[in-house]
Amino acid sequence: MFSDETAPLNKYFALPKVDLHRHLEGSLRLATMLDIARQHGVTVPVSMLNLSGLVQVQDQDPLTFSNFLEKFKTLRLFYKSPDVIHRVTAEAVEDAAKDNVRYLELRFTPVALSRAEGFPLHDVINWVLTSAQKAAQKYKIKVGLIASVNRHESPELAEQVAWLAAEKIKQGLVGLDLAGNEAEFKSDSFHGIFKEAKQAGLRITIHAGEWGPAENVRDAIENLGAERIGHGVRVMEDEKVVSLARERSTVFEVCPTSNFQSGVVKTFELHPLPRMLESGLKVTVNTDDPSVSRITLAHEYQDVCDKLNVPMDALKHSILLAAESAFLDEIAKQELTASLKTELKL
Ligand code: ADE
Ligand code: ZN
After folding, report:
1. Domain assignments of the chain as residue spans, ordered by start
2. Which residues lie closer than 8 Å to 266 by C-beta, 6 or more apart?
3. Which of 30, 60, 152, 180 is the most buried (most CB within 10 A)?
4. Catalytic-labelled residue, pool 182, 210, 227, 253
């Protein structure tokens, strides 16, 4: 299930990749967290083994959404200074580039990053944007940023984040995402915020049909203006919502290991991704939280092919689809898709 750090360079690593669904807060290196804990006195166990249990899913963990989300509560303790936020952002971009990801859409939760030290949301957003852009240039990778707000947190704060994000579209903050506890929280109090955010020019992606029913996918498309759905795998429970997603050309950002670890599917092999493809849905493969899940995108691609029996050709088309579904302007998107087409021989 988990990544093998010593795995030889393989064909999945060699593929040029696109990740549309990766959370900054789920991408922190364990070694960096130890450094931060030592430097800033974060009160967590400072041995690799103990810390890992708090912030990464373990083989013996209960495979539930609540256990999965619990890791993010501990992760919030680490954002102790502007330097820390600069560092973890740059490292997240570097790690993607080293996995041969050509386009990364990195989402981050300003409220989470601002909490430990009470940093202003406006500053936190600027720090992430600045570091991501700098790292993108250094590591030769294209990066788009998405601001994320949680269903289980205050709509008032979400509204502030949405307005601040809309002011930063030209600086590469391209979208708005609704994440968090879908099992217990509806989206009603966020409808107005997402409608206005879309009107202001932000692109919309919504976590739905992950821990909640297919109906939430309909809600995301019809009431929140989602062009893309984070996960959305439970759409398969309702043929009418599958039809709606097909009609609207909704793109699904599927993250198979995350779904297994958070209890959406009983075993990895039972993941509905192949059935989603057969139903004519637009499916992309992504990591969600590579550090929490202890994976890379190369490993996800490998497992999708080896364990879900998705042919290499279909995987390559899903990479191209991800590029075509990027929240980039048309010119940048054309450039990305053209280079991927050539490299993937499509
Ligand atoms: N935040 C980080 N990972 C998430 C997930 N898989 N679902 C909802 N919120 C999240
Ligand atoms: Zn997610």
Report:
1. 7-344
2. none
3. 180
4. 210
